[in-house]
């Protein structure tokens, strides 16, 4: 493979502007360095990569993209960016950042210092369902989790046994409180299966895609 052109950039996520360039190490595609690109107010986290079409079925690259975002979010509030956003040069990124400044600012207001936590609750297998207990579990879980989270979003119930599939936006300082609540409910409804995941980048609470063209912008 040819070496990546020096001015071709791939964007993983966006953080608030820092006083100096930050390097996250050689964790990008092909072991390339991941670093911040200076822009006004907000800065994209990028690596120098070939400008190409990124295939949505490339699991290896998708995993690298996700791992970079997870690494950055350990120390910074982030706006995750969809996989596959490459730019021919720094100028095009800056154009897009300026065009999307209002959307970025709004998203940061929502997700600053927060992470996404996921909950799936499955009904018991091969037993007659107690409808009263079912509704009690769903209501209690919803009420208790929403007391801790700032926002929630219901996702697809992809199985008849799936009682609840919800993702929550939770302040980082409240992760342990949320986890403790999960454990309490697991004990109370021990015949139900709880799947708890995260912390994740807040993918389900922002919908920002950098457009790789001269007009730039976010949608």
TrEMBL record:
InterPro entries: GvpL/GvpF. It is found in: Gas vesicle. Keywords: Gas vesicle. One of its GO terms (cellular component) is gas vesicle. Transmembrane segments: none annotated. Pfam families: GvpL_GvpF (PF06386). Its main location: other. The keyword Lipid metabolism does not apply. GO terms for biological process: gas vesicle organization. Belongs to the gas vesicle GvpF/GvpL family. This is Gas vesicle protein GvpF. It comes from Methanosarcina barkeri 3.
């Amino acid at each position: 493979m040819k070496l990546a052109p020096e001015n071709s950039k791939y964007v993983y996520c966006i953080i608030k502007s820092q006083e100096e360039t930050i390097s996250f190490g050689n964790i990008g595609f092909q072991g390339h360095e991941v670093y911040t690109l200076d822009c006004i107010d907000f800065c994209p986290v990028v690596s120098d990569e070939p400008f190409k079409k990124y295939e949505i079925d490339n699991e290896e690259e998708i995993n690298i993209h996700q791992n970079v975002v997870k690494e950055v979010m350990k120390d910074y509030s982030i706006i995750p960016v969809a996989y596959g956003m490459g730019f021919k040069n720094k100028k095009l990124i800056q154009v897009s950042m300026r065009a999307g400044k209002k959307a970025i600012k709004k998203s940061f207001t929502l997700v600053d210092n927060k992470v996404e936590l996921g909950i799936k609750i499955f009904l018991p297998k091969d037993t007659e369902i107690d409808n009263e207990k079912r509704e009690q579990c769903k209501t209690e879980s919803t009420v208790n989790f929403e007391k801790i989270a700032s926002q929630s979003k219901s996702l697809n119930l992809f199985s008849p046994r799936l009682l609840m599939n919800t993702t929550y936006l939770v302040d980082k300082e409240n992760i342990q409180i949320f986890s403790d609540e999960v454990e309490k409910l697991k004990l109370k409804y021990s015949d139900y299966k709880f799947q708890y995941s995260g912390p994740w980048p807040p993918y389900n609470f922002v919908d920002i895609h950098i457009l790789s063209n001269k007009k730039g912008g976010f949608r």
